[in-house]
Design brief:
Ferritin, 2 domains, binds fe (ii) ion, mainly alpha, 9 helices, about 75% helix
């Protein structure tokens, strides 16, 4: 698991995680823009280059953190605008792309989460363990269920066994997401302690997110060896494995970052 071995939790590592996330989205989106949409393709290419260079800066750890976050926040906002503009066009059937609207929305939500994480870092505010884990569950469990749906979207229909397995896991993550929603309103603010129900829910999600990460990495190997019939971008599974890893790590550490 190469990404896990190099998963650094210092401030630069956190910035790198989020910037890389949006950089990857740009690269995945690039494959799905029709040649009729030259302007969109060019603007997206520009975003890929911009986010890629900020990711390099985050990895080299040489730029001042304050300057780096400002730059990352600015670029993410621009990318967010491009995605929301495209989403609006896609909903009106005015753009030729093969990306489903819900996948655009998925990327838009991650861009929004990126900006709030950067703002949280800049504010220096502390989030209580109960607030942090409820937030992480609420945000990421929907993303995890989405990932499984996109695995299905790209997998060729001939993979009957794999489709069954993915459907089963999707149901599980849909249920976990519903439970996270319920707990978010049941456990009211101020949330000064992690109640036993929340603790046991977190443990269940950690276990399931680890299993999901392992499954995604298993599929990642098959796709990279061209051994599964799929139209998935070659490193999409590694990307979504990293997000599953991010979820369980944050739940273990009881943080939003
Ligand atoms: Fe992502
Ligand atoms: Fe995602």
């Amino acid at each position: 698991m190469p990404y896990t071995d190099h998963y650094e939790r210092d401030i630069y590592g956190i910035i790198a995680f989020w910037v890389r996330n949006n950089f990857d989205h740009g690269r995945f989106f690039d494959r799905e823009i029709s040649h009729y949409e030259l302007e969109l393709a060019r603007t997206n290419q520009y975003m890929i280059q911009r986010l890629g260079s900020i990711w390099e800066k985050a990895k080299s750890k040489k730029t001042d953190v304050g300057i780096l976050i400002d730059e990352a926040k600015h670029a993410t906002r621009e990318f967010h605008s491009l995605l929301t503009y495209t989403m609006d066009k896609a909903l009106r059937c005015e753009v030729i792309i093969s990306t489903p609207q819900s996948l655009l929305d998925h990327m838009i939500r991650e861009a929004e989460e990126t900006i709030s994480v950067f703002k949280l870092i800049q504010s220096g505010k502390q989030v209580s363990p109960a607030d942090a884990t409820l937030h992480e569950n609420h945000f990421w469990l929907r993303q995890m269920a989405d990932h499984l749906r996109y695995i299905s979207h790209y997998l060729d229909p001939s993979n009957h066994e794999l489709h069954d397995r993915v459907r089963e896991m999707t149901k599980k993550f849909d249920n976990l997401f519903l439970q996270a929603n319920a707990l978010t309103t049941m456990i009211r603010r101020p949330r000064n302690e992690v109640l036993p129900v929340l603790h046991s829910f977190n443990q269940m999600v950690i276990k399931e997110a680890k299993a999901l990460e392992a499954f995604k990495l298993e599929l990642d190997d098959l796709i990279k060896q061209c051994a599964a019939v799929t139209t998935s971008p070659p490193d999409l599974l590694e990307h979504i494995s990293r997000e599953a890893h991010h979820l369980w790590r944050n739940l273990e550490e009881q943080v939003i970052l």
